[in-house]
Write a structure and sequence with these properties.
Layout (H helix, E strand, L loop, with lengths): L2 H14 L1 H39 L4 E6 L8 H6 L11 H8 L4 E6 L2 E8 L2 E10 L13 E2 L9 E5 H7 L15 H4 L5 E11 L37 E16 L14 E4 H6 L6 H4 L13 E6 L5 H10 L2 E5 H44 L1 H9 L4 H44 L12 H18 L1 H8 L3 H5 L3
Parallel strand pairs: 4-9, 6-8
Antiparallel strand pairs: 1-10, 1-11, 2-10, 3-4, 3-7, 5-8, 6-9, 7-8
Helix pairs in contact: 1-12, 2-10, 2-12, 2-13, 10-13, 10-14, 12-13, 12-14
């Protein structure tokens, strides 16, 4: 049987039972729409997560910690590298070496500490963190009130909304929604805030001491509160002093978001320029943790954030930093688990979405079986005039394929329409909550092709039994059928 004749016969047979075949095609369309809707939701959520992570700058960031810091991100690296006592310190010299690595844009220290602030003669204790100029482009400061720092070393501060409320005496109750920037918090912009901190002042003529013999070492805890001392001969040699200082800061902005969780700014409620904070020479806990750093005039850091030119180069930069003797962590390590989660989510969503398509497949079987009973005489005539069993099978396969093709296209259209409506409703809700709009439903072109092809394959599989049953009909018995 020629292909043209096959298509003409299939089309004529489908037109003879328009209502029944249309309902079957509609069932396929609903099944495909359910599949497209479920998979589009999973794809949209994954793209949303990726956009947020890319916007935060985490994909191109490597966080570096010292092996001397036992609270590093990856404890397996501590076992693979040199012992902590033999590993280098994460100081300014190491940071500059990282900044010179290939494909590295910047290496910024994560400086954060607890300090006292005074506003209108009232003390407030909170965490302060330094931010580089590149932090201006991060999503945490997109909708801030006021402005970002005017210069890398400006004596300015950006407040987190909760701390701004605290300065104004606004106390949020437990269970209440997060505070938002309003007229009261905006009134803080331009006001002065006093930072109280401890400055680390190197003593003149200091040099790192030589290790003393074990029998002549001083017992732990014998150092002075304001200076560190040690000498092989037992003579005291001060390396630095801790001096209390105060600096006036001008409040230039208020933000209701928090920077990403991998950088040192996470958890801080006052943000100041990083260069300004480095110039203060603040005595931070990282500078007191290691005995060698106590005699060094170079600052030591708890962690350093290395920003890479391209996320594809992150792994190479990590390997280079590991060879320097430091621990590293990047969001790419965490996204392996994230990708696994979304793969499992897409699998389950696809399975649930295919249930409706399975029901539609039963509808195809039922429709074609009923067609066999109604067209037994026609089938008998076809076989009597020379049609082979294969020709009969092809005819029923063609009918099933046409229903699957049109059902797939209808389902894709329904699924896309559902996605647009859900995106529209979601964005209306987000705007009412003063949140930026998001697309949580995404139908890529490959999903359109996959859905139509899948519907076609399911329809052809559903036509296997009816086609085989029609091909087995005895033409003599079929011609006698009334």
């Amino acid at each position: 049987m020629k292909a043209n004749d096959l298509i003409e016969l299939a089309g004529r047979n489908l037109r003879e039972s328009v209502l029944r075949n249309s309902l079957t095609t509609l069932g396929i369309g609903v099944g495909v729409a359910s599949l497209v809707a479920m998979l589009s939701l999973g794809i949209g959520l994954q793209q949303l997560a990726n956009r947020r992570l890319e916007r935060s700058g985490l994909f191109d960031t490597v966080v570096v910690t010292s092996r001397r810091n036992f609270r590093g991100f990856d404890r397996d690296q501590n076992r693979e590298g040199p012992p902590p006592a033999e590993s280098p310190m994460l100081d300014e010299k190491a940071r500059l070496a990282m900044a010179k690595l290939a494909d590295v844009l910047e290496a910024t220290p994560d400086i954060r500490f607890i300090s006292e602030f005074r506003y209108q003669a009232k003390p407030h204790l909170t965490a302060v963190a330094g931010l580089p100029p590149s932090a201006k482009d991060k999503d945490a400061f997109d909708n801030m009130q006021g402005s970002f720092f005017s210069a890398p070393d400006a004596a300015e501060a950006v407040l987190q909304i909760q701390f701004a409320d605290e300065l104004l005496g606004i106390h949020q109750r437990v269970g209440e929604a997060s505070s938002k920037v309003n007229a009261q918090t905006q009134s803080l912009i331009g006001k002065e805030l006093t930072l109280k901190y401890a400055e680390r002042v190197p003593s003149p003529g200091t040099s790192p001491p030589q290790p003393a013999p074990a029998e002549s070492r001083s017992p732990a805890g014998s150092s002075n509160a304001n200076s560190t001392s040690s000498d092989a001969s037992g003579a005291a040699m001060a390396s630095f002093s801790v001096v209390p200082r105060e600096r006036e800061l001008r409040i230039v902005g208020v933000t209701d978001q928090e920077p990403d969780g991998l950088r040192g700014a996470s958890g801080a409620r006052v943000f100041v320029p990083l260069q300004f904070l480095e110039d203060l020479h603040v005595m931070v806990p990282a500078g007191m943790r290691d005995s060698e750093s106590s005699f060094s005039n170079q600052p030591t850091y708890q962690s350093v954030s290395v920003r890479v030119k391209n996320p594809d180069k992150v792994e190479a930069v990590q390997d280079a930093i590991k060879k320097m003797g430091f621990n590293t962590f990047s969001i790419l390590d965490a996204t392996r688990s994230l990708r696994r989660f979304f793969a499992i989510l897409d699998l389950f969503l696809g399975i649930f979405g295919s249930l409706a398509l399975a029901v539609a497949a039963l509808g195809i079987v039922n429709t074609l079986v009923m067609a066999i009973l109604e067209r037994r005489r026609e089938i008998g005539i076809m076989k009597a005039i020379g049609a082979s069993d294969g020709d009969v099978k092809k005819l029923f396969f063609a009918e099933a394929g046409v229903m699957g093709l049109f059902g797939g296209m209808l389902g894709v259209a329904l699924g896309w329409s559902m996605g647009r409506l859900i995106n529209l409703g979601t964005n209306i809700y987000l705007r009412r909550q003063n949140l930026p709009p998001e697309d949580i439903w995404l139908v890529p072109w490959w999903l359109v092709g996959f859905a139509i092809l899948f519907a076609l394959i399911i329809s052809m599989i559903s036509g296997l039994y009816p086609a085989a049953r029609a091909a087995r009909l005895d033409p003599v018995q079929a011609l006698r059928y009334e």
